[in-house]
Amino acid sequence: MPRPSQPICLIGDIHGRLDLLDQIIGLIAAQPGSETARVVVLGDMIDRGPDSAQVLSHLIGKTRKAPDRWVCLMGNHERMMLDFLADPGKSRQWLRYGATATLHSYGIGIGIDRPLAVAEKLREAMPADHIDWLNGLPLIWTGEQGLAAVHAAADPARRLNKQKATDLLWGHPDFIHRPRRDGCWIGHGHVITAQPFTANGRISVDTGAWRSGILTAAWMDADELRFIQAKGPPRT
Description:
Elements: E1 8-11, H1 18-29, E2 38-41, H2 52-65, E3 70-72, H3 76-86, H4 99-105, H5 115-125, H6 128-135, E4 140-142, E5 147-150, H7 165-170, E6 185-188, E7 197-199, E8 202-204, H8 209-212, E9 214-220, E10 225-231
Parallel strand pairs: 1-2, 2-3, 5-6, 6-8
Antiparallel strand pairs: 1-9, 4-5, 7-8, 9-10
C-alpha cells in the first residue's frame, strides 16, 4: 500500500450531492496535514443527484484557487454529457442516465424526448467556463510511490501512460481480478459498493452517494490509509 510523504485524498462519485461534498470537504480539512494534502475527485460529479451545476461551480473554484492541491478527473457521465452537447442527434445515451437531474440544476425543465432542443437549452444555460473546464479534465492522475487514480478502471496489462480512454471511463474486465505487474495501486470509483475497500491493488471508494447518502473518500498519508465518509439523507 502506498505511503505518500504528503497526504492524498481520493473522493468518490459525487453525482450532484452538494450537501455531501460540502461535508466531506469539512472532514478533509479536519485531518492532520490537510493543509498540504492533494485532493483528487474521481469523476462522475454530475447527474442523478439534485445539485450538479452547483457541484461543478464549487469544484471549479477549488481547482482554480489551488491547482496544485485539487484535481478532478473526468468520469463517464461527464464524457456522456459533453458528447451529447457536441452531437445530440447521435449521442442520446446521456439522457437515459441521470441527465434530467443535471438539466433541472441548470433550470431546464424541457422533456428529454426532444434532444436537439435539450442540447440548445443546456448550451445556453451552462456558463462557458463549465464546458471549458469539463473538456479539460484529465482521465488519469499519477502520484508518488506507486499510486494512481482513474474514474473506472485501468487495464492491468498496459502501462499507465498507454491506457485506453474507454477503459479508464467505463471499466475493464481484468481490473477486478488481476493486480498490476508493476505493483501500482489504483484508486477508483464508478462501481458502487456497500463499503469502500482495498484489494488486488485497487482502492474502491464509490458508495453510491446519490442514492445511499454516503460519500466516501480515501485518505492516505505516511502512516496509514483510512476511509472518511460524509453522510446525509438517502434518496427516497
